Amino acid sequence: MALIEVSHLAKNFGSFHAVKDVSFHVNEGDVFGFLGPNGAGKSTTIRCLLSLIRPTDGEIKFFGKSLNQNRSEVLTRVGCIIEKPDFYKYLSAQRNLEIFARISGKDITKRQIQEMIDFVGLNGREGDKVSGFSHGMKQRLGIAQTLLHNPDVIILDEPTTGLDPQGIIEVRNLILRLRDEQKKTVLLSSHQLSEIEIIANRMVIINQGRTIVEGNVHELLEKQSMNLEISVANPTVFEETIQREFSSLTARLVYQGTYHIEMEEDIRQPLIQRLVETGCGVKAVIPKRSLEDFFIKMTEK
Amino acid sequence: MLWKNTINELLKIATKIRSYIGIGALTLLIIIVLFAMIADGKSYIGFVTASFEQTLSFNGKILNGNLIAFIIMQMLIVHVPLLISLVTGDLLSGEEAAGTIRMLATKPISRTGIVLSKWIAATIYTLIMTVWLGFLSLFVAKWMFGTGDLIVLNSNGLLIIPEADLAWRFGLALLIAFLALWTVATLSLAFSAFAKNSVGPIVSTMSVIILFTIIGTLDVSVFDSIKPYMFTTHMAAWRSVFEDPYPTSAIWESVLILVAHIAVLLGITLFRFNKKDITS
Amino acid sequence: MKSVLLFVFILSGGFGFGQTAEEILKGVIDKIDLVEDYQADVQIKAAIPFIKVPIAKAKIYFKQKDKFKVESKGIAILPKQGMSDLTGFLSNEKKYSAVLGEAKTINEHKTRLISILPTDENSEIILAKVYISTSEDLIYRTVLTTKSSGTVSIDYEYNLNKKYGLPNKMTFTVDIKKFKMPKSVASDIRNNDKQKKYKDNEKGTIVLTFSNYLVNKGISDDVFKKD
Q: Are the beta carbons of B176 and B255 closer than 8 angstroms?
């Protein structure tokens, strides 16, 4: 069942069309990647999902219900982090969580708040004012705030921004736990495509305010043509061979002696064989089918 | 949800330093006035009775707690609006500046609920300030200066109100003063809905009060038609309670105009905040 | 005929036609001297332009020669002149000269006018016109002209304490100058154009009604100490 359905969403800010026609759906149990280059309309779309911004057109449904008409009921079951989480700096971490818990739509006890503080690794710091927290600690507090009311859907907009590698891994593991152990549905917007490739099962790519492609991550990557990374000892021979015998292919020099060539799967074997025969001095052949490449290809169109 | 968020708003107000700046400043001002009266209160009385002292002598305790309370209210009703708008002007715009409005608006509380809970909290803060003003000016002044009849200087002469007739007058005066301050609080909250920082609403509120007060005092016929409807014209309506006979219809008129201002300003705030796209 | 005229002349001495101003005053002063001290309750009702004041209640204390005090719980407005200063003034015969004037009936009492001129240039009182009933040795009207307070007229009524010359009612009529208030001080919100228009100089009245006199019961000097 689709927990989130976005149909032909549009948003104009005066004469500027931030979102023109975005549609996608998120199924129960998905970790859904929401991708797009800067200025594609991702933040605007997410803010529309969370009723921070009123859409100009289109429809948003959560749990089969219109967001417009069931806002309170919907948001009781949704947790989110939008960009960096902001808190009341003059209050302690615990007090901040109490404030948000009070208006979460559910009865949340102090014990539950303490458990959540422990879960995100802030135990011992709950009495400290947020003004003294590092970025990583605020992010953790943001996660605590998101999960406090045990939402069914979690929307994360750039949750790893500003985090160190350890922090990024922690967030990744948390999302996986949410999916596998708690059966949460997660909509994740991120520029960390490698992370999306690892943890997301479905995704949508938008560009210039429109949906470009939507689907299962691995199925989409499987469908795309392969990228080979070939390292050779004789770049001149290599280039001549490609030009003479494989003129439909384009070899892109990545760094000295190493090329990327995009091709269909059935050309791979004959190409490698021919390169060896012509004496290019093939040192390494690495097939690549990355989300990054897919993303660039989709958004360059 | 409305009442739960109102508790949240009161907690936020109670834990912000700026909330106590207003209360502290008010306390300090009143203490200064009290000590000034101890030092030179008799000169003030002399000024009040000067026109009559050639032929009449005023006996009894003129400089008493009731007179001091009246003087304090006259002096401070002008300044208390600024102290109140320091807090109420920050309620929406402060959250926008801090980014917490984003967190708040994604909770299952309606935009109307957010505004109403902030407005209720602002009302309670205004009430606390008014009660504190009343407590310091009435009870503390009476403790320091004793009690007695109240001598009031109006533009058409002196009025002496017996002590037994003062309790309800001061009560009603404080109620009307609260209404005036409530209007200011609602005005600054309305400005707060349009701003992204706190300075703008506070400065705008005081600018409006100053501008309207100046218009109100100008003896220019062009403004005569709008003066009765400006809220600043009615901010001193509390003083009418200390006339004899007190003008019931004029007081009611002032109350209705202030209530109308509150309703309209609250309506504007609700409309603006409901329509607002939160992009910060 | 001559004896009749003489008889009439002797009789008319009882109506003061034969008395000098000093003799008439002496009757009043003798009564004043009977009072060592007194205290009384007084109700003060003032009708003064530019002032609205409720009826006030006070207590007054007097002790010879010139100790006087008014004690009121609330604010009481009293005339500046004519309360106690007149009796003290009259007691000191060397400080003034008295001139006998016309006869006048005041409130059904036949009185003679005594005009009193202070000999002291520094005296606050410029002229005192005292209307005295020679048969009762009581003052029924005084018109005081003072340097700083203008003219104040006082009418007296007597009841139980005639023998001491202590009135049960005094009605003061004082001059009131037009009240001018700087707009910056008064903060009435309404410019009331319908307020009563007063002339530049109006008159105000203050009526003192005395009761519960306690005469010559002894009053401590501490009573007259300033608060």
A: yes
